[in-house]
Amino acid sequence: MKRAALIAILAVLGLATFITVSSTYTVNEVEQVIITQFGKPVGVPVTTAGLKFKLPFVQDVNAIDRRVLEWDGSPSDMPTKDKLYISVDLFARWRITEPLQYFLRLRDERSAQSRLDDILGSETRNAVAKHELIEIIRTTKDRVPLRDVLLTDSERAQDIGALVPIQKGRQLVEQEIFAAAAEKVRVFGIELLDIRFKRINYNESVRPKIYDRMISERRQIAERFLSEGNGEAARIRGNRVRDLNKIQSEAYREVEEIRGVADAKATEIYSKAYNQSPQAVAFYEFTRTMQAYKSIIGENTTLVLSTDSDLFKFLKGMAPNGDLVPASSSTETQ
């Protein structure tokens, strides 16, 4: 009897413990709870932390995270307004603000992530398709590129490296996506906190073409610089040749002037030296004539001279055996 009574008491205590455990639950600081009875929510969401009670066996506890959650989308290819295919990678932050609505619509976080994939992906495609690529990758309006202080005024006037002006920029495009997506996710009890572009890249199929175009543009700029450099080099070489010719011309003129002055001075000295007496004059005539002979007469030279020529006067005196034959008005010698 005592043993049976003890077993009954233990059974009652075990059942009471089981009922007590089944009727209590705890809510921590990072959770909010929806109580469901036969699969349907009952009461209001429990949002305060602590020990709570429910009906045992018929009611279930559904914990819902109340922290800021992360959504990290997969890279997706989409076209821009200027028909460039790019791969866009987004991330966002969200939280559950209406747990009952969230539970009725989505039930769990996995379903919420899937719905965010659809909504954020769709709004991103719409926003990217309405803007050119430069609007999506640039963030600051009226940004001025840094230029080397050594550039000349003409080089600055060419406006090389000028940035394409933008109307909105990446930040405003992100805000457009955020505003459109936030309205759509609110019906699920979700508050969208932030959205950002994580990475923007060219699509693999068009990336080689883009790179080829970039290389071509840079090559055109390089060829323009090379052409301008060749033109400047030609101008410098032309100036060098002109200056060299000018220097040579001026030097030649100075040389000729100096030579003329020297010849005049020499002539003056010769004149003073050879005009001192008749014998000096005759000697001067003889030496000058000999110099003329040396310049005029060479091997196999034929001279036709007049009999009263000054050159013939000295040759006539030098003829030993009548090699110089006088003619009626001229004399020929070989």
Characterise the protein shown here:
The protein has 334 residues and is an alpha+beta fold. The protein has helices spanning 2-23, 99-105, 109-129, 133-137, 153-157, 170-186, 207-274, 278-296, 310-318; strands at residues 24-27, 31-37, 40-46, 50-53, 59-65, 69-72, 76-79, 85-96, 190-202, 303-306, 325-326, 330-333. The chain folds into 3 domains: 2-61, no CATH class; 69-144 and 163-205, 2-Layer Sandwich (Tetrahydropterin Synthase, Chain A), CATH 3.30.479.30; 275-333, no CATH class. A hairpin with a 5-residue loop joins strand 7 and strand 8 (85-96). Helix 3 (109-129) packs across helix 6. The strands form 4 sheets. Strands 6, 7, 8 and 9 form a 4-stranded antiparallel sheet that branches.
